[in-house]
Structures are given as C-alpha cells and as structure tokens.
Amino acid sequence: MSATGTHQAGTPGRVDTCAWIGGYPFRDIPHPDPEVLVRVLEREGFTGGWVGHLPGAFHRDPVPSNRALYAALAPHRAMLAPAPIVRPDWPRWEQMLRDAVNEGAPAVRAYPTLWGLGAGHQCMAELALACGEAGVALHLTVRFEDLRQRHPLDSAGDLTAAHVRQLARLPGLKANLVVAGAGRELIEETHWGLTPPEQQRVFYDWHWVWGPPEDHFAHLLRTIGAERFAWSSWWPLRLTQQAQALVDLLPAGESAAAPDNGSTGFSGLPFAHGGSISPGK
C-alpha cells in the first residue's frame, strides 16, 4: 500500500486526506502520536493518510513545525505521508514548498483565515499556481471545531466559499484543491459558483456534513456526485468512524454514491482517492 492511497498493485485505496499529529492549543486531545495514528488508520480500513502537524497551524513560522512533522513521520512513511504547511506571505515560502516536494508530500496545507489572508489574496493565488507546477494538491481547512465549542482565544473565522472559488477560478491553475471540514452550505456555494472545468479541481471531505434525518450527505451525492468527495478521519480532533457512519446511514436501499441517470438512487461508491487528487508531477 501507499501513503498516497494506492495499493501496490495500482488499484485505488482509501486514503485519509485529513489527519494530524501533535497537540491542540485549546484542549487536550488523546494520543496525537504517529504510531497511534497508524494503528487507527489500519483499524478503519485506510491504506494511507495525509498528515499535518496540528500545533503548526497556530504558529507564525511553519518551518519548525514542518521539520518536526518530517522527523516524526520518518519511521511510518509507508503509511503516513506528510502534508506540511506552506505560508505564502512568509519569507522563503518557495523553499517550504520545495522541501515538501522533496519529502514526497502529496499535498501542502494552508490556513488563510488564521493568517488574516482574505479571499482573493495574491499570496494564496501564487501558492495555488506553484502547487500546480510542483504536482501537489493544496489542502484547505474550513475549521477545526464547531463554533459552539471553540475556545474564546480561537478567534479566527471559518474558511469561506469565496476563498475556494477565487483559487479554483485562477487562469492556468493545475493544482487540485482539497477542502476539509465543509458543510453542505459551503460545498454547494462553492460548487455551483464554478464552471464545470473549475468544479473538477475541487474535492471535499464529508466529515462535517449532516446525515439523517436531514440527509445532507445523500443530497450532495445525488446532486454533485461522489467523485468530488474524499475520505478522511479527522484524527485526533473527531471520531474517525464518522465518514464510514455517514455512508452506512445513507437511505435504505441506496448503496451510496453517484448520480444514477437522474434517478434518486445510488450506484456504487466512486469516491475520490489519493492518486486521483494528487497524481504527482
């Protein structure tokens, strides 16, 4: 198997596109260690994971965080691939991206709302275009926790659909965008605000999408299609079983995931996998 989500035989595997190691500044989290993450992913049927360094999201300078990430994942690279941070308004961010590519990262993470970068900021555009040239995906996190449980010091707002649309609309964009932590409203506001070619550049996880009784997840699969959605565990911030539970709770008699010639049923599970999102350069 491969940390990017492809079995050795070349068939797609279930890659976790959103996981972290390290502590969280606003509450205690259990077992934020890479060796525990490996066991969790194997238990849940993942073939690999894209792993970020959670403390680094809240640091001004991501370089020390990236170094810690590379070192911590080194013994587990068969299962865990680094998804380091690249901050495009920081000096020598191009070197951060080169380091990520040299370390075999399938994606790099950016947190524009934590850095005060609004939708359409030129630095984010430069990063997205550079990711395309480097052959890595750009990973964006909408939020870490629900608004109702956030610490008062966690004052950064959520990523908006405008952030994602501005990047997806960039002329000449080659990079794919992975949006983690979005609900139905943000997904629809993003997807239906893009042209069909632009839509093909954006992938979402479904960890924060409601299942029954609202059945937002089933609605999105019917209207947008499973190929736009990627598996995730959200370890260690959320229950790793959430994604599988939402699939298992799809309406009775509908075996989950793609629009079926306009019918209300589902016909298989063609979710996106790591190789299709970040095929490499």
Task: Name a few traits of the molecule.
281 residues, alpha/beta, four-stranded parallel beta sheet, three-stranded parallel beta sheet, 30% helix, globular
Describe this protein's structure.
This protein has 281 residues and is α/β, with parallel strands linked by helices. 30% of the residues lie in helices and 11% in strands. Helix 3 packs parallel to helix 4 and helix 5 packs parallel to helix 6. The longest helix has 13 residues. It is globular and about 50 Å long. About 6% of the residues have low confidence.
| Mean pLDDT over the residues | 90
The total of beta strands comes to: 7
Based on secondary structure, the structural category is alpha/beta
* Structural shape: globular
Strand order of the largest sheet: 4-5-6-7
The SSE order reads EHEHEHEHEHEHHEHHH
Whole-Å distance between the termini?
A: 20 Å
As a whole number of angstroms, the C-alpha radius of gyration is: 18 Å
